């Protein structure tokens, strides 16, 4: 046992860490489905609400966000159908904890706004929350598009402070396009590339 420990060089340690990252990246890339589903749903919800406010002019414009329930149904069904047994790495556990925390905080924010009103200020808060998940996931997986997407969210959040709530709906769609949808398709492309490069 001691000999094995002594022969374990720093290069071996780095190789093990990189292997863990690669395995986790493959898992997350395979699950780019979730980035795309939630990205398109948020994009559609924000855009639909903008249309209901500006063109339809209905006070029930908040109903646009009911599309999010579709995301919960799709995610649950996919989790149940595609749940392969595998050993989770430390990075797997870390990412799962990050997104679970973001989900819980998001629910709490929704409850607060439902109770207190003042919905025009919710968009930058949600974008800040989304950006945290994108940034940490991108850094842990060494996947720059997610980090750039988070940076785009931060820039758009600053821009939101200079415009009205209706414009923020459009900016939310743009932010999600840059932080979820485009990186999601890039993740899917990387996964397909990995499948092609795998030996038969």
Q: Please estimate the helix content.
A: over 70%
What is the element string, with H for helices and E for strands? HHHHHHHH
Q: Could you tell me the number of beta strands?
A: 0
Give the class from helix and strand content and strand pairing: mainly alpha
> How many structural domains can be distinguished in the coordinates?
1
Coarse shape: elongated
Mean pLDDT score, rounded? 85
DSSP summary: helix tally = 8
Spatial separation of the terminal alpha carbons: 35 Å
Keywords: Membrane, Transmembrane, Transmembrane helix
Transmembrane segments: 33-56, 62-78, 90-115, 121-138, 145-163, 169-187
Short descriptors:
200 residues, mainly alpha, membrane, transmembrane, single chain, transmembrane helix
Structure summary:
With 200 residues, the chain is mainly alpha-helical. It has 8 helices and no strands.
Describe the protein in words.
The structure is a single chain. By secondary structure, the protein is mainly alpha-helical. It has one domain (25-82, 92-192). Helix content is 81%, strand content 0%. The protein has helices at 2-6, 10-30, 32-56, 68-81, 90-116, 122-141, 144-160, 165-197. Helix 3 packs antiparallel against helix 8. The chain starts with a helix and ends with a helix. The model has no long low-confidence stretch (mean pLDDT 85). Keywords: Membrane, Transmembrane, Transmembrane helix. The chain crosses the membrane at residues 33-56, 62-78, 90-115, 121-138, 145-163, 169-187.
